[in-house]
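Follow-up to my post from last week.
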Amino acid sequence: MTASDRFEIIRSLNDPGKTWDIIVVGGGATGLGIALDAASRGYQTLLLEQTDFAKGTSSRSTKLVHGGVRYLAQGNIGLVREALRERGRLLKNAPHLVRNLSFIIPNYHWWEGMYYSIGLAFYDLLAGKWSFGRTKHISKQATLERLPGVEPKRLYGGVIYHDGQFDDSRLAINLAQTGMEQGATVLNYFKVTGLEKGGDQKLSGVIAEDVETGKTYHLKAKAFINATGIFVDDLLQMDSPGKKPLVRPSQGVHLVFDRSFMPSHDALMIPKTDDGRVLFAVPWHDKLVVGTTDTPLDEHSIEPVALEQEIEFILNNAARYLAKAPQRKDVLSVFAGLRPLAAPQDESSKTKEISRGHKIIVSESGLITVTGGKWTTYRKMAEDTVDKAMETAGLNPALCRTQNLPIHGSRNNMDWEDHLYVYGSDREKLLALADENKAWAEKLHPKYEYRRAEVIWAVRYEMARTVEDVLARRVRLLFLDANAAIEAARLTARLMATELGKDELWQNEQINTFTALAGKYLLY
Ligand SMILES: Cc1cc2nc3c(=O)[nH]c(=O)nc-3n(C[C@H](O)[C@H](O)[C@H](O)COP(=O)(O)OP(=O)(O)OC[C@H]3O[C@@H](n4cnc5c(N)ncnc54)[C@H](O)[C@@H]3O)c2cc1C
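User reply:
Got it. Predicted complex:
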């Protein structure tokens, strides 16, 4: 969608006679999946996202497409089986963004080799035809070769298993594009500020503000879906003030390091750190992502900040398993995300014990709220939610079509060494931009392969509106190297300004806002 398409779409929202079948609030994994599912069934669908697509939790994950080995240990077989099936479907439908990765669990007790080999063999078995590869036990020597730097003292050996890895916000953008190709209207920077009800107290519309212009719109629909992640209670409060909270945020932090800290093609998985948490060290876009934590919080925010104790926890544990002990100065980026976990009934429950499955709740007004789940299962969550909307709003029945629907950019046999692989089938079109302007073939930052054409592409075809949209969620520089992202901000703003017809004042505001934000991704 180009900037002028956006203008036209927004203008069409003024049509007072228009009633959408479904309005989806929230443009993270959940909302985008729902918009795609609904549009592909033929429903007139509108999705509104208050900031940028995936700015919330959906750009801050561990980047795994997985069944959840941890949930298996908790005996949650149904949840794991469903996630493994969805993992397989995602690999099939978005092979340009999802890849099969081997994970190694180092064993420090004599019984662990057998314990994890059996458990993970069952994990493979549950995956059935969607299996990513067989689990196997490896010797101490092989473990040390594949994970150079892993603590050798008391090491018995290792267990290798397979799971998926992806680029979360790139998948979100591709879902938005697929949704549009299926007929959905999706808008970022549109915030729902109120709900409208008819005489029967059923929802009839939403009030939404165009965040860029401040203009307000009254939009009607037959079904309304609250897919706002950790913000679901804000919308539920608009619907029914005084309602008990449904979700409780739990923060997860990741630190990003240079690959030299774990020069391995495999990922490292520690099922139980000293305090019982899972720790991953995952190679991602030529860097190493290490995390995560699980810290219950009382407040939510669109830009959560890592707590000191979370940073210490990751640094201390990383020191035990990586080739060299990382220091604060080695952290290229730190990012925090909030899990939209279902709030416990019993106040004493810990976040780890709260269900990771998704929940769909229909309020008396007809508002459908979907919460919980994970990125991996977004498609199934969407299917269940649209089924519920069909039933609640009496929409013409239509079957779900997303099981085998290729996601925008879908292409097999990607060259993972070429950083442009994330564009999949768009790669050549992106490169062709350099025919229009030779300078766009040049680098965006001297240390990285990103091209200036990627900024132009993000504005023209991926709905990027701000420097942050480009550097955080279209190219992932903010998450990979926050200092480099700050250094690239000026050029990014200049390139965007030409495309969007913005002046110098806009550029300076963008640079200042982005620099202040990116500072929070740095530790020193
Ligand atoms: C640390 C961490 C690691 C994780 N790792 C993994 C992983 O490796 N694999 C995996 O499968 N899952 C993982 N998850 C889970 C996964 O990331 C989430 O389940 C998923 O991203 C949630 O998506 P969502 O769309 O529900 O929420 P969000 O992505 O938060 O989206 C909600 C959106 O609603 C918007 N919104 C809110 N209010 C309004 C309003 N009034 N009007 C318009 N828009 C509004 C927000 O701006 C936001 O963009 C992880 C989660 C965390 C926190």
